[in-house]
Amino acid sequence: MIILKSPQEIEKIRASCRIVAEALQLLEKAVEPGITTLELNDIAERYLKERGAAPAFKGYRGFPMSLCASINEEVVHGIPSAQRKLREGDVISLDLGSLYEGYYGDAAITVGVGEIPEVARKLLEVTRASLECGLQQVRENNCLSDISHAIQTAVEKEGFSVVRIFVGHGIGASLHEEPQIPNFGPPGRGPRLKEGMVLAVEPMVNVGTSDVRILDDKWTVVTQDGSLSAHFEHTVAVAKNGCDVLSRFN
Ligand code: MG
């Protein structure tokens, strides 16, 4: 069942998303050669706590940290570690969730470390753009899979591939609610979008094959062929006149 949110609930989700967005801005500034993913985790966790929010991922199904930090061929769910130092030319996906006054916010960005190769720059641009293409389909009476199809089309026309086995999700008083939101598929399928639906849309895009595998740590998802991967995510509400991006702030 897809839980529709009242305007008051949507404002609470926006408040939670704001904390995530601000933390991601801090992290983006902190990313530089030599910093460890554990240090990034601690920056995020400290900021959430300062703002009175709890890290949503810490302890979720046993995930040990607050931030998912996934470098290069790592797709999602990388575990921050004092052993993982960023190097010039890396790309790192930073995925963060907060729980604030009973509501979740979820967003992710991928950023380059210093100067990055041309293919990495293009991957980041295409992945970010594919998320925007998906969000353009968020409006009342569109079908859920119109979002999926727009993302897939934007990615594949640039020669990259969309990860299939991880998907976006509804969000609200729980971190993961119905519906699941694949980043691929034909348009015109699935439930109609309705005002009050709140969705976390999150394309994961690989330079090479769409196949992925999970490392022995039981969390870190990597591309099967070792190619680079990127990930962007926004939490959005279906509004009267289109898409209200709850996790976007200037
Ligand atoms: Mg998510």
Automatic annotation (TrEMBL):
GO molecular function, one term: initiator methionyl aminopeptidase activity
Cofactor or coenzyme needed: Co(2+); Zn(2+); Mn(2+); Fe(2+)
Binding of a divalent metal cation 1, residues: 95, 106, 233
Boundaries of every Peptidase M24 domain copy: 11-239
Main EC class the enzyme belongs to: hydrolase
Pfam family, one: Peptidase_M24
Organism superkingdom: Bacteria
GO biological process: proteolysis
Presence of keyword Secreted: no
Alphabetized CDD domains for the sequence: MetAP1 (cd01086)
EC number(s) given by UniProt: 3.4.11.18
Cofactor note: Binds 2 divalent metal cations per subunit. Has a high-affinity and a low affinity metal-binding site. The true nature of the physiological cofactor is under debate. The enzyme is active with cobalt, zinc, manganese or divalent iron ions. Most likely, methionine aminopeptidases function as mononuclear Fe(2+)-metalloproteases under physiological conditions, and the catalytically relevant metal-binding site has been assigned to the histidine-containing high-affinity site.
One GO CC annotation: cytosol
Function comment: Removes the N-terminal methionine from nascent proteins. The N-terminal methionine is often cleaved when the second residue in the primary sequence is small and uncharged (Met-Ala-, Cys, Gly, Pro, Ser, Thr, or Val). Requires deformylation of the N(alpha)-formylated initiator methionine before it can be hydrolyzed.
Family: Belongs to the peptidase M24A family. Methionine aminopeptidase type 1 subfamily.
Subunit structure as annotated in this protein's UniProt entry: Monomer.
Protein name as annotated: Methionine aminopeptidase
Organism: Tectimicrobiota bacterium
